[in-house]
Each structure stands twice: as structure tokens, then as C-alpha cells.
Amino acid sequence: MTGGPVGADPPSSLLAQALDHTCTALGGVHPEHLTAATPCTPWDLAALLAHMDDALDAFAEAASGSVAVHHDVPLATRVGSLRRKAYALAQRWTHSPGTVWVGGLEVGTSVVTLAAALEIAVHGWDVDQATGAERPLPDRLARGLLPAAAALVHPDDRPGRFAAPLPARGGPSARLLAHLGRGAVVHRRAGLAAR
Questions:
Q1: Is the pLDDT of residue 188 over 50?
Q2: d(Cα 173, Cα 179) in Å, to the nearest integer?
Q3: Which long-range contacts (CB under 8 A, 24 or more apart) does 180-184 make?
Q4: Lowest mean pLDDT among 50-64, 85-99, 166-180
Q5: Number of C-alpha atoms within 13 angstroms, CB side, residue 148?
Q6: How far apart are CA 19 and CA 13, in angstroms?
Q7: How many structural domains compose the chain?
Q8: Cα–Cα distance for residue pair 34/127, rounded to 1 Å
Q9: Domain that holds residue 114
Q10: CB 41: neighbour CB atoms within 10 A?
Q11: Does any domain span residue 44?
Q12: Is the per-residue pLDDT at 21 higher than 90?
């Protein structure tokens, strides 16, 4: 998974697009959203943000060439901290190593960058769903991530880390999300007003 179609965005560009999309989504998070359901069942938005915080730390660490595989997941997180980490991550990956060691396994930088872009973009979409924004992923970003999702999400990842794929209908965003087992709209808990 070192290349892509001619004219396709490089992994670093997809990561930058994913970070931009997700930072916009994080801008819509307010305290009343923290208990909202997300497409990542059974996580509410607070748990998803804690996961995203841990993931950003791991991808930032990967930019130095090595990732430890046993991190403590923070119990609480702040949106401002996530946004700062996201912008810092984009800067760190501009000078990334040729390979990254993940728990003793050597992984190509492009694979790690694509995994980061996929993780960050899709969780940005999850945040939008939880806050009621319901924005699609940008088509260019989703189109660039479709091959990565097909290569990185193995059947063994289901049902543990991903839900079963859904019928793929619509444009690139809908197809990417369906591949990852995400429907178009999450049902928010009663009483949550979309902002």
C-alpha cells in the first residue's frame, strides 16, 4: 500500500484534510454533547474524545519513528487540547521517518499516515453526528481513503473494532462510512438539542 492511482492525493495530504475536517467538527462540541450517542457504540461523545486523544498521541509518537503499544487511555479530555494536538500532528508528519516501529514491527510511513488519516477523518464524522452537525466527509478525502479502508480494515477486525459493513449507496463519503459499518445518521439521546 505504498502508492495509489495516478493523480490521487498522497497520504500526507489525506492526513492534512482529515485533520482539518476533524478540527472543524471539534469546534461544534459543547458540554451538553458529551453524553450524546456516537456511531461508535457503546461510546458516548466523551468516551470517543478520550479515544481520539489517545490516538492523536500515538500518531504523534509515530512521527518520531516508534510507537509503544500500551498507553493509558485518558479518562477525560478537552476539545481545545484535541485541536492543538491535531494541528501539531500535521506539523510533525511533514518530517516523518521512512518507517515506524509499532510494538517491534516495522511499518511503512505511508501505511501509518493513511491509518491516521482514516482514523481521524472518520472520528471527525462521528463527532459531527453526535453534535447534530451531520456533515458528510468531503468527497475528495473520502475517495482518497476508500482504498486505505479496504486494505486496513480486515474481516478479523469485525465485530471487535468495526461493525459489519452496510450496503454501499451514494458518493465516496457514504461508501467509506458504509464499509466501516456506519450509517448516515446516529440517533441522539432524547433531550439533546443540535447546535
A1: no
A2: 10
A3: 180/122, 180/149, 180/153, 182/39, 182/122, 182/125, 182/126, 183/39
A4: 85-99
A5: 27
A6: 10
A7: 1
A8: 10
A9: 11-138
A10: 10
A11: yes
A12: yes
Q: Does the residue 68 lie in any domain?
A: yes
Using an 8 Å Cβ cutoff, are 71 and 58 in contact? Answer: yes
- Of 29, 13, 6, nearest to 129 (Cα)? 29
In a domain, 144, yes or no: no
**With b meaning 16 or more CB within 10 Å and e meaning fewer, what string describes 136-153?**
bbbeebbbbbbebbeeeb
Q: Which CATH number covers residue 15?
A: 1.20.120.450
Q: Does residue 61 lie in a domain region?
A: yes
pLDDT in tens, 65-122: 766 655 454 434 456 667 777 766 766 666 666 777 777 788 777 888 888 899 889 9
